[in-house]
Amino acid sequence: MNINEKIKVQVIGIILPLLILVLWQYVVSAGYVSYHILPLPGKVISKFIRLFTQEKLLLHIAVSLKRVFYGFFIGTVSGFLFGLLMGLSRTSEKIFGPFFHTVRQVPLIGWIPLIVMWFGMNELPRILIVAIGAFYPTTMNTFAGVRSVPRQYVELASVYGFKGIKLIRRIILPSALPSIVTGFTLSLGMSWVVLVAAELLIETNVGIGKLIDVGRETFNMELVTVGIITSGLLGFIMTKIVEKLASGTQKGMVSDQKQ
Amino acid sequence: MIQSLFQRFNWKDGLLALIVPLLVLVVWQSAVSMHLFSPLLLIPPLTLVNTLLYLASSGDLTINIIASLNRVLIGFLIGASTGFLLGLFMGLSPFVDRFFGPVIKAFKQVPQFALMPLIILWFGVDELAKFVFIGIGAFFPMVFNTYQGVCDVPKKYCELARVFNYNGCHYLSKVILPSAMPSIITGIRFSLGLSWMLVVGAEIFGADTGLGYMMACSRNMFQIDIVMAGLVVIGAIGFGINLVLQIIEKRVLRWRITSDQGAKGNS
Lengths: 259, 267
Hints:
The complex is a heterodimer.
Chain A: H1 3-29, H2 41-53, H3 57-88, H4 90-103, H5 111-119, H6 123-147, H7 151-159, H8 164-201, H9 208-217, H10 221-258
Chain B: H1 2-8, H2 11-33, H3 45-58, H4 60-92, H5 94-108, H6 116-123, H7 127-151, H8 155-163, H9 168-205, H10 211-220, H11 224-252, H12 254-266
Helix pairs in contact in B: 3-11, 4-5, 4-7, 4-9, 4-10, 6-7, 7-9, 9-10, 9-11, 10-11
């Protein structure tokens, strides 16, 4: 693709966002739609700046990120260990697999009422539900990764007398890594979606989900819009970071193989 | 098919699979018998069964199930069909892809539930808001999977179609759609699964019928038996939806399995 064509692709891609923006500005300023229903784009930007400088947007973001981090950490670590166990031993897969897949059928959000009854309206149920959301993708992808380690690798390892931890560390994990990393990425996306739901459905004072809901309660469309855009941006940035880290680990693996 | 299922059923595996559920039941029942937790927080397993039977016989459950399924069905149909059409056109035409692609990818970044307050402000709290909310959720998996499926149609099929001079309709129904079908069905599965989760969330947030409403309402009144019964029911329905789609997938994609085997036979 030459440079001219690249520019053409970008120009086509920018038409629709511009069109939306112009139409948005037009319908509101011409009075077709009340600015209570649709705030002006400029107002949204100034609200964003005001939130950032005066109204503690960073605090909301920090609290949400902290919840996601704890939930993600608990969910992926336990999911990784569980997936590894089921991947390594066929007996444990037969014991835990059917139960795991049965419980997995319950939609994540459905756990919220029960968890709230058990643990009350505080941080714990929010972190727990995020952890459950992060648990499933990591478990399944770790399991799949371990199971698809080529048989030759394991045979070669047994020739060299690799056993136990050494076998897992040197053969199984490096080979299963791409699939495990995919699991982490999916888990992160899920964590973020579930967190916003948890902040809406489990009473709280701070957090990006709560911020959006405050906007709804006070009929402040600018706040709602800023909240939605912020939550989308944060999700995007987190996914990008994990993808960067993931490609880093995979590069490390390739250079290892070259040596 | 059922017969072959029974033939394949391995009794040893079946017994192994029963270990964890039995263990859970034993621990659960003994925790109840030893009064480790308040009866407000943990009910005996048998009470759960009784609650389920009671809810089923009183008709409450049926009303709520129908309300939830109705929302999922309509929201899913709206979202998935628009997603399918857009994905199809994006796959067929690079221009449409470049035109809509960036905007759709940007919108996809927003967590579904972040949109709920906005949708409620725009559409109110009644059914329409729920259809829109579920529809948006169902839209994205369908767009991306249809698009991927259409993009992955092997070039040689398209060339062959050109040789045979297939016109638009024929080309779609004989070449593109069959070839993209596995990916499209994956999209339907993701999209329906997500819809089922979103409807429960939307009903917990605010509704006057539905399984999510039933659970949220019982939570407020501290009726843990109904909350747990609701959990079992939404899990069972989620399982049922998945099962039906798997059966449909097997039926629709039967040709793929046989043609794969044919390919193996040739090589």
